[in-house]
Design brief:
The chain is of the alpha+beta class. It has helices spanning 8-20, 30-46, 53-66, 74-84, 135-153, 163-180, 186-189, 195-208, 210-214, 290-301, 318-340, 344-353, 358-368, 378-391, 404-418, 430-437, 450-454, 458-492, 507-520, 529-532, 534-540, 549-557; strands at residues 105-109, 116-122, 131-134, 224-228, 232-241, 244-251, 256-261, 273-274, 280-283, 309-312, 422-423, 427-428, 579-582.
Length: 592
Amino acid sequence: MGSTGITEADVDKAMTIVESGRQSLRRDDPAVQALAAAVSVRRRLQGEGVVTDDELLGVHDHLHARMPYRHGGHLEMLADALLARGIVPSPSDYDGDWWLWWPKKGYGPCRDCRQPRSLTRYSAKWGKPYRYLCARCRKQELADDTAYLDSVTGVTREEGESAESLHARRTAALIGQLGSQAAPTPAKQAGRPSAEQWGEYVERLIELLGSLDWAGWAIPDEYDSDWDAETGPMLFATLWRTGAALVVEYYPYAGRLRLLPYDDVCGDFPESFAALDEEVEISVSREGDEAVTAVQHQAGALGLLDATRVRVVEGADPEAAEAFAVESLRSLFGPAASYRKIPVVDIVKEALEHPDLSTYLRWVVGRAGRDVHPDPVPDAAALGIAAWCWRNETAVEAHHLPSDVLMARVNIAVTRAVLPHVCPYEGIDWDGIEQSLTDADWELPNGRTVSSLFADGWPEVQSTVREQIRKWQRLDSELLGPDTTLRLMTIGGSTSYTCHWWGQGRWRAICEEIVRDAVEAGFALPQPYDCRGSAALIDDLEYPDMQSDAVLDWLIDMPEASASGPYGLRHHPATQPLVREYDPWWATPEGD
């Protein structure tokens, strides 16, 4: 193989190496030319020359074929350079002996996680071939192997036990299992669901997960399945929303739905994190709306119907933290890049420089919502529109209504008016929102028009709200597209500014804690719930705008409460959002 980059000086150096090895070859010998090509590549890699992947691999292969020995370390150098580019032999390449000259340690993309990291040539037990893995993936593979053997054999390591003893016990367990295996009896085969029944279970599970589907979680149409004679059929899957994940298991016969923390045991998704900290089980019937409502309430209490708040753990590897931040930015602006058919970096630059968007990005996204993951959650986006197209950047605050109860009623009315116009599939109907929020005949449940509450200030409120809505409509259609706009509005509806507002997924759970604390403190519930009871109050607070002023006032500030609590909605700690952690435990700083 020749190379256009070979110079006479390269051939001279190749001849020097040949002669130092007491070889007698001519300058035009193919082996000398192969070595000269490697010298040329090394020179260009150390300087500013360009070496393509194909040339690098070709020179390596040609040198190995022509001069596998006494090449002055150039074959090892070429292997180092290939590893840095993620080009690694398969186990059978070079007669399976490539590990003899490829480096023990290097730097490049890990085979499993594909992240550029410090790598080690690695061959674990169980006959796996050599490959290059980072420290995190080596640890994970070892843990996976151990967990697999624990599961298959039913034997786990005892404290202080040697590797030889553990191996002997596992071998004995496997032999015992092979001897006891028998064909399944007809009794065990009986009861297996038909294909039609499996389809019915899937349809019911999709129905049960409807609230999660609306909140932006990707609900699959197909599920993994299992069956045994004890528990009957089971469906299971991993649900994803942006980088968050949770595991769902559904047991139709037992009437159980389990939500479990996700664990990326294979290391396939390094920027993922668990949406739950512990397992939750919900009793569900195979028919009816009651179970659907139960799942919705539980999912809301767990924060799964709101945007995910996530923080990188303190002390995390800076490289991993940076990768997580980049992935979040890509999740936010990637849809806009697809909508505009331009690179993500161009969208980000344009957005940061846009006069109508830059302040929102710096203040709302960068500060007030810095821990909010860019999820597409319609209900949270409706709160974002209520916050940033009605309450803020408009004349509404300048004409603040006379009581917090009345302002709360209007906030709820705004959110209710916006909700029908926000869809996770079609985006935001800005024309419908403008018509609803600027209609002079728009009424509260008690029949009073919103325009009459602002009296002479209504024209100013009307015009400034219209201006904000049209600004976002232009950003949506001209710059961001529907998906990114929905995500930005979700962040806007997920800050501390709106954490007390009706419309969030955790609303019922917040009310439950407020009422529970009041009852435990011996406080009287507002009429008529002093007679109807706390359960009725919690149910009715799902529609707070339908309650009396006395009930709303009690909920907001808890009139009997002292400075030490218990507290109403304004100060209760339950209003603080749940925050998950992204812990890249696998990350190892370069050089470790």
